[in-house]
Amino acid sequence: MRNLVLLAVSVVASFSFSFAQQSTDSLRLIQLSGVVVSSDSLEQMPYATIFDKTVGRGTLADFFGFFSIVVQPGDTILFRYFGHNESSFIVPDTLTDDRYSIIHMMVKDTSLNYLPTVTVYPWPSRADFARAFVEMDPYDDAFRQAQKKLSGESLAFIASKVSSDGSISYGYAINQQNTRLYTMGQSPVNNLMNPFAWASFLQSWRSGQLSKQ
User: Fold this and answer.
1) Residue ranges of domains in the chain, CATH in brackets
2) What's the predicted TM-score (pTM) here?
3) Burial code of 2-18, b = ≥16 C-beta within 10 A, e = fewer?
4) CA 57 to chain CA centroid, nearest Å
5) Residue 157: what pLDDT?
6) Euclidean distance between CA atoms 148 and 150, whole angstroms
7) Pick from 40, 73, 81, 198: most CB atoms within 10 A?
8) What is the number of other CB atoms lying within 10 angstroms of the CB of residue 28?
9) How far apart are alpha carbons 83 and 49 in whole angstroms?
10) What is the pLDDT confidence band of residue 68, given thresholds at 50, 70 and 90?
11) What's 22-39 look like in SS3?
12) Measuring CA to CA, how many Å separate 60 from each of 50, 52, 198?
């Protein structure tokens, strides 16, 4: 009788341990990350759909085909992308780490009938294209255009249109910031009642600096 009780206790203990082990494995969360690429060109597949079929949760890849989703061991992950066959990936149940990375390749769907490629040109008619072709300057490339815009004449013309240079603007901004910090919690400074401001104004007026500006 005692042996039967010990045997029953052992069976119950082993069953409880295995059930607890299965429960622990089922509650494990894994951060699955990776990149979705095309199998023929290895180019990233932006905004591909990644769907966990087991739990009914999904996400989208970013512009570079990168994705990241929380899964559990044994989950079936479906990958979908327009023009490609749907493919799946089963999360291994032998993982010991809580992070796992993959590179998932998708195969093009050759059964689809694509429309022929249409090239859009910036000319509304053949006559406009012929005129643009004749008037085209093949040597005026982007590098030469940049050189023209950075020439001394162009820079001098732009500088004449600017009221002040960068150092003056920076000094003015710093003075404004220091004034705000100095008068924080107080009334704003009124230079009409500032004798030093009036003295500086009169001195500039007498020296003729105002007329020069």
Assistant:
1) 25-106 (2.60.40.10)
2) 0.45
3) eeeeeeeeeeeeeeeee
4) 23
5) 79
6) 5
7) 81
8) 14
9) 13
10) very high
11) HHHHHCCCEEEEEEEEEC
12) 6, 12, 65
